[in-house]
Amino acid sequence: MRKRPEIVFITRNYPPQTGGLEVYSYHLIKCFDAHHTVRKIALGRSRYHLLWFLPLALAYALSVQVGRRRVPVHLCDGLLSPLGVVLKALTGTRVSATVHGLDVTYPNRFYQRVIPHCLARLDQLVCVSRATRTATCHRGVSEKICAVIPNGVDPNAIYNPVAAASGRESLSRQTGGSLQSRRILLSVGRLVRRKGVAWFIKNVMPTLDLSWVYIVAGDGPEAHRIRSAVQESGLTGRVFLLGRVSDEERDLLLNTADLFVMPNLQVEGDMEGFGIAAIEAGSCGLPVVASDLEGLKDAVMNGITGYLVEAENREAFRRAVEDVDLERARVRGAVIEHYGWEKIFRRYQEILLPQRSVSHDKEA
Questions:
Q1: What is the chain's alpha carbon radius of gyration, rounded to the nearest angstrom?
Q2: Bridge-based pairing state of the strands 37-42 and 146-148
Q3: CB–CB of 262/291 below 8 Å?
Q4: What is the pLDDT of residues 71-126, one digit of tens each?
Q5: Cα angle: 296, vertex 218, 151; to 5 degrees
Q6: How many CA atoms lie within 13 A of 69 on its CB side?
Q7: Cα 316 to Cα 204: distance, rounded to the nearest angstrom
Q8: For the chain, where are the E strands, in sequence order?
Q9: DSSP class of 125
Q10: Where would I find the beta strands (DSSP E) of 191-265?
């Protein structure tokens, strides 16, 4: 039996750090490790450790190439592209990267002069959505090297139908009021302006039936503005801000809520590259109502896993929330079929190891 194909992964976002990029890196590398020989170079600490991580990552990646045939390298986000350019120049190996959105649109003049230029010099880019590909190509990167593969989700990592029974009792204790007969809207994630939470509270919540309550889990620079929106709208008893929650608490919320909302706004330089929260919600059978913009177009299957509505359209959001009627089992099934990590891995394998993966699969 021939030796398994090798590949090097470099990521600056990896557990125990938490976040969408960390989840993506962990599962992508885990899937490849089950089928190939993986050399992992990962930073599981905050971005302040990048100063020492980058030269060490370069040194290790170079050492992998010594005495071997050129081992392909994949960078888990676009910010690492300068590292990839150096590796290509020194070794001639094939270097690819995944582009997520903000890593190509970050609004800094120096960043915009360096990162798109470096991305354009790599062999292959994987963009997590069509919107991300458009933003990347708009910055001078050839469309020929840009493939689109959405983010993936582990179908069973969050899903827990048993938790739904006890979830409302737990949430009632957290919010200080009974939620047994209420319908729960949910948003989970970092509270930044593009997420549109304050807009939704001010413009949509007052128009909804009084049976709806809105739970917001997360923290960020918009937290103060969101609290003010709740008070100014007189919604103290219907909107509950939980702040940052643990993974276990987040999972309980996703299995308990009735509808997940992503009322994103368009903010220059801060695009939603994909919207992994949408498929995490869908993996629990939770339908999603989201703004019809940017990467959310690829994260929500309109009419199947949720509904896409015009951004900042109060009446459209109200109708979508009040009228949504999607069976949880079908939502979950569609998310597993289209975004399950095993399928996403196969698509990555075809692009990152086109010759090696084919020959290895034939032998297996």
A1: 21
A2: unpaired
A3: yes
A4: 999 999 999 999 999 999 999 999 999 999 999 999 999 999 999 999 999 999 99
A5: 35
A6: 5
A7: 9
A8: 6-11, 37-42, 73-75, 95-99, 124-127, 146-148, 183-188, 212-217, 239-243, 259-262, 288-291, 306-309
A9: E
A10: 212-217, 239-243, 259-262
